[in-house]
Amino acid sequence: MTIPEIEPMELSIPVATPQSQLLIEAGRTEKQYWRDLWRYRELFFFLAWRDLLVRYKQTVVGVTWSIIRPLLTMLILTVVFGKLSKMPSGGLPYPLLVLCGMLPWNFFSTAISDSGNSLVANSSLISKIYFPRLIIGVSSVITSFVDFLISALLLAGLMFWYRFVPPISALLLPFFTLLAFIASLGVGLWIAALMVKYRDFRFIVPFIAQFGLYLSPVGFQSGVVPERFRLLYSLNPMVGIIDGFRWSLLGGQNRLYLPALTISIIEIAAVLISGLLYFRRTERTFADVI
Amino acid sequence: MSEIAIIVENLGKRYALGQHKGGVDGMRHVLEGVIRSPGTWFRSRREAKLRQADFWALRNVSLGINQGEVVGIIGRNGAGKTTLLKLLSRITIPTEGRFRIKGRTSSLLEVGTGFHQELTGRENIFLNGAILGMAHAEIAKKFDQIVDFSEIEDFLDTPVKRYSSGMYIRLAFAVAAHLDPEVLIVDEVLAVGDAAFQKKCLGKMENLAQSGRTVLFVSHNMDAVRTLCERAILFEEGRIRADGDVESVVEEYFGRFSDGSGPRLRGAYGLAIEKVVLKNNKGQETREFCPGEDLIIEIIFDAQQCLEKPYFTLAVRGKKGNCFTANMMLDGHRPRVLNGKGLISCRFKSIPLLPQRYTVQLAIRASNGKDVLMDYVDIGSFVVKANLVDYGYKGQFQTRVSEATSVVIPYEWRLPDGTTAIVSLNAPASTI
Questions:
Q1: Chain B neighbours among A 102-161 (CB < 8 Å)?
Q2: Which one of A106, A242, A253, B256 has the fewest CB atoms closer than 10 angstroms to its CB?
Q3: A4 neighbourhood in chain B, CB within 8 Å
Q4: Alpha-carbon span A131 to B107, nearest angstrom
């Protein structure tokens, strides 16, 4: 069998030709990857759809769980921080303050644990079918985002109950939501890729979620942190995001602490970029290692 | 038609043995190393990389496949077949070399991957389609065809966890088969499912082939390979051993068993088959038999662990499936113990077979009858050569014999006018 020589020129054949060409060479698969990501774009939503569809099967109250869980957490945090510790609320109803902080935090914590587990949970897919693995990680963040939207409805209901009208700064909410999304994605990708090799993260992630709830200004305002520790405290990227949520939705005393926000943005960008790079670097061996 | 669909050049895949297995190389180990002395850790890691026993699952593989060719990939376990498919379907990336595929490729390495137990058949069709790379609109268009092929209409809205395994496989294959790829890569998926379904799948693949699609088909079932493919490639220890027309390559495959030159056929618990020889009445090694001759199958095994009372099963398969078997699970005889090298043989007395090609299969189970030491594997092949007259056949349509069954036993007709006729091997054809 004679193998025709492949001219180097042919490497740059565009995909747009009616008959697509695929060239895989040891060490250079990058260009093909981003094309594939586009080709498989529907899969982002199919996988998220699957996870949502499956989640509440064989439960009695079904999707109501998405409301019950944050509601109960909010009540507990309100009692602990608002009633028992008597934290300042800046004249706002404490439940509103708590729920507003929980919104981004819960999104972040479920997203990192779900997307962290996502590769291992889908190991049978990874070892038998090709598609850009990035889709698995991203789609589980999308799943968590749907939960986020449901909780947002809860917040809207609560605002209505307290007859609270959000200030004009609420228009900036999408920006902070985007920040929360990127932060979740960046950390999620890191953990997902690490988990393939080191299952230790299965135990580490719940820890982060548990501690983070108290280390982040979820049950209280970041204003209660003494001024000299404020910058140090802001190293937690969620501080900037949660403050941003409170500032945009509740206004009033929740002034935006710009240094914290700046630190958050820088950290989030760094985590996303490094996460993507690490994920891409390890992705090629997922099927061999998982 | 002769346009190249797949070109593979010097493809190789290396695995590092023992890497990342279990918790030994866990994170604690790594962290500890880094923290204690980063410099040493880095150096020792590089040394470890060099020291690590490498294993080339595939090496120096070059081949070209034309558009519209149906190629069977054969070889024993661990020969590199699946690695090749995994590389071509891009599940893993090559360590060296490159390949090029022209046209939309879909691969089916396992039936039903990506199915979710909790979802209904309908939901799974869409999900699986998307995972295999179909657009939503495309799946919707082919939905009816898929359902039709899978014969599960009544259970479309039942979660697949309540499906029988047959239904599950039918549905999964149906989705994959309707991808309409230009290049189809199929691993041993037909081993599952009942005979009728297997036939249907083979038919579907034949259709694809006839419409100019390229099919790569990995199988241990030589009959299926013979039926489906014109060309076969035999892999051995990660390299191409033979490549050519299907008959000669399959012969080569079995030849490697009978001269014992190929790598051993490995089973579980350290059991391996070194050599398989077919002999006739006179004790001569042969692959051609006359009807009525004895068929002796000699198996030389090597048991590295002591195995007590295993069950051996030998089956002789013809075109239409099993003709006869020698099954220790039925007859109750079995070796007391296998330890080290040894020989076990079985003589089928005066085989009553029609002139066709037959395959010999072997399976070995542990003493509990459940654990599989070696799953059904083709270990030999022979042809029966004879004139139909020898069987006492003289009918007008005797050329249709190949559509008939494979086994004949002597029989006697008694006609309305009282005449009788005996039809029997080597008996002169009596006239009615």
A1: 124-131
A2: A253
A3: 4, 7, 64
A4: 11
Same domain, B369 and B234: no
CATH code at B181?
3.40.50.300
What's the rounded Cα separation, in Å, for the pair B200 and A198? 44
Question: CB A131 to CB B136 under 8 A?
Answer: no
Cβ neighbours for B175, distance < 8 A, ≥ 6 positions apart: B124, B125, B128, B129, B132, B146
- Residue B48 token pair: 């470890």
Statement to judge: residues B219 and B313 lie in one domain: no
Asked if A2's CB is within 8 angstroms of B92's CB, the reply is no
- B119: containing domain: 58-252
- Same domain, yes or no: B161 and B191: yes
Claim: this prediction has a pTM higher than 0.80: no
Considering the domain architecture, whether residues B325 and B369 belong to the same structural domain is answered as: yes
Confidence band, pLDDT 50/70/90 cuts, at residue B24: very low
ipTM (interface pTM): 0.76
On whether both B92 and B238 belong to a single domain, the answer is yes
Q: How many domains does chain B have?
A: 3
Q: Does A23 touch chain B (CB under 8 A)?
A: yes
What is the nearest CA distance from B160 to chain A, expressed in angstroms? 13
**CA dist., res. A152 & res. A168, Å (int):** 17
Question: Is residue B344 exposed (0-12), middle (13-18) or buried (19+ Cβ within 10 Å)?
Answer: middle
In a domain, B194, yes or no: yes
Q: Are residues B305 and B392 in the same domain?
A: no
| Judgement on whether residues B297 and B335 belong to the same structural domain of the protein | yes
Chain B interface, best mutation among A129, A195, A285, A286, by max B CB count within 10 A: A129
Is the CB of residue A143 less than 8 Å from the CB of residue A44? no
Q: Which residues of B touch A121 (CB under 8 A)?
A: none
B346 located within any domain: yes
Q: Which candidate from B100, B127, B136 shows the least CB-CB separation from A50? A: B127
Tell me which residue in B12, B103, B159 faces A20 most closely, judged by beta carbons. Answer: B103
Q: Which residues of B touch A128 (CB under 8 A)?
A: 91, 109-110, 113-114
Tell me if B11 sits within 8 A of B99, measured CB to CB: yes
Could you tell me if residue B143 is inside a domain?
yes
Tens digit of each residue's pLDDT, chain A (290 residues): 444 433 333 333 333 333 456 777 766 666 778 888 888 888 888 888 888 888 877 777 877 888 888 899 999 999 998 888 888 877 788 999 999 999 999 999 999 999 999 998 888 888 888 888 999 999 999 999 998 998 899 999 999 999 888 888 889 999 999 999 999 999 999 999 999 888 888 899 999 888 998 899 988 888 888 888 888 888 899 999 999 999 999 886 667 778 888 999 999 999 999 999 999 988 888 888 87
